[in-house]
UniProtKB/TrEMBL annotation:
Organism: Tepiditoga spiralis
Name under which the protein is recorded: Probable endonuclease 4
PANTHER family attached to this UniProt entry: APURINIC-APYRIMIDINIC ENDONUCLEASE, ENDONUCLEASE IV ENDODEOXYRIBONUCLEASE IV
Its EC number(s): 3.1.21.2
UniProt-recorded Gene Ontology molecular function terms: deoxyribonuclease IV (phage-T4-induced) activity; DNA binding; DNA-(apurinic or apyrimidinic site) endonuclease activity; phosphoric diester hydrolase activity; zinc ion binding
Length: 283
């Protein structure tokens, strides 16, 4: 069965997420574990966590269908020591919460080198990951590096950069990747065509290993191929478009990986979008 879902808010508690997921016809989800634009992490509500885990068990939601996205202030590539250390400490805390929720996959953007250069940034991220994983290696956790749009000194807009980060760490088995279709389109990965898909899957296999692709962020793009703008659009309404996604959904690896929407709109909007995607896949 296809794993299809979206990003859900946690303002009503973690235990609310599986229910809302179910209501909109989804069977997979992504969440933040705290407000993503702040460093602050609230103390966990033990009862909420227990309720969440009970629902996951009852609904038989497996680990391949659940993802935590890190906060946005984390920058593992930062050349500034204070911000870099704060990023490492915060990410360790976020991962501990992820593990206590029984979730395995933790998604993070590699970060921005802030004009220090890509090679510096790649080393910096790899060093940060080694420090982090040293602290959490006993948990059933896998860190997924997400491909991003090329802007603001971001590292990871090409698959080989994700591969280079993994190659420079000491814990390769603890690291995988998430592929974001909008960010990839921003970086000239054209999933609308057979050639584009062949190239993308070749690069993933060549630089990272196809088995390390664990999650897909399913987003259309408000801007055309290669724009590097990072503006997500509703599936079928953007430049990837209806026909483009029909091509994307032809690939077995795509359909065997959890597809998570990060498109604009409410849970109710996502309900319609999920119905639309199910139809597109079935065709
Ligand atoms: Zn992201
Ligand atoms: Zn994404």
């Amino acid at each position: 069965m296809i794993k299809l879902g979206a990003h859900f808010g946690i303002s009503k508690g973690f235990a609310n997420v599986p229910e809302v997921m179910n209501e909109i016809g989804a069977n997979a989800f992504q969440i933040f574990v705290h407000s993503p634009r702040t460093w602050k992490i609230k103390q966990l509500n033990v009862i909420d966590v227990e309720n969440f885990k009970n629902k996951i068990k009852k609904m038989k939601i497996d680990k391949e269908s659940m993802l935590v996205h890190s906060g946005y202030l984390i920058n593992l590539a930062s050349p500034k020591d204070e911000g870099w250390k704060k990023s490492i400490d915060t990410m360790i805390e976020e991962i501990k919460i992820t593990a206590s929720l029984g979730i395995k996959y933790f998604n993070v953007h590699p970060g921005s080198h802030l004009s220090e250069g890509e090679d510096f940034g790649i080393d910096r991220v790899a060093n940060a990951l080694d420090i982090i994983i040293e602290q959490i290696k006993d948990f059933d956790i896998m860190i997924l590096l997400e491909n991003v749009a090329k802007k603001g000194g971001n590292i990871g807009y090409k698959i080989n950069q994700l591969g280079d980060i993994i190659k420079r760490t000491n814990y390769k088995e603890k690291i995988g990747i998430t592929y974001d279709t909008c960010h990839g389109f921003d970086s000239n990965y054209d999933i609308r065509t057979k050639d584009g898909m062949d190239n993308l899957l070749f690069e993933i296999n060549e630089y990272v290993g196809i088995d390390k692709l664990k999650m897909i962020h399913l987003n259309d793009s408000k801007f055309d191929l290669g724009a590097g703008k990072d503006r997500h659009e509703i599936i079928g309404k953007g430049f990837i478009g209806e026909e483009g996604f029909k091509n994307f959904f032809k690939y077995e690896k795509v359909l065997n990986t959890a597809l998570l929407l990060e498109t604009p709109g409410t849970d109710e909007d996502h309900r319609k979008e999920i119905a639309y995607i199910k139809k597109a896949i079935a065709q």
